[in-house]
Amino acid sequence: MSLSRQFGVAWLALYAATSIAQSPDTLWIERPVPGYRVSLAVESVANAETPEAYRTHASPAEHRLTVVIRSDATGRSVQLARASVDVAEKGYGGASVALSEGPAGERGLYQALVPLAIATDYRILVHATPAGESRTLEAEFQYRHHH
Prior knowledge:
The protein has helices spanning 3-18, 52-55, and strands at residues 28-33, 36-44, 62-71, 80-89, 95-98, 100-101, 109-115, 121-130, 137-144. It is mainly beta. It is globular and about 40 Å long.
């Protein structure tokens, strides 16, 4: 199976499992951390296909970061006690933004709006503490913003 087909199948499975209203071209990226899988999607909030409820009060530079963390043992998304993302342009320090739970009925999804105004590479660090645990997970993602 080709890598692009594997990505497509993985995205479709994750999309179906989370059922969040996102455009069909939203790409999920996954990183393993001990005992968990951290998935991240970056989506422009100004996208015309994005439902109006998700575009409220957004500027064209704003993007929604959506995070899902799944347990390796169960394959299910885990509830988080705390979660944040640290977003930085390549070569610069980042800004930490708290993640909040997704819309009602979207359990296990955590989101934040962040400005990605410059067409460059970004480093996105996801920091998450699963409920009932004392250690914080960290997963690093690279994102190339092209608008």
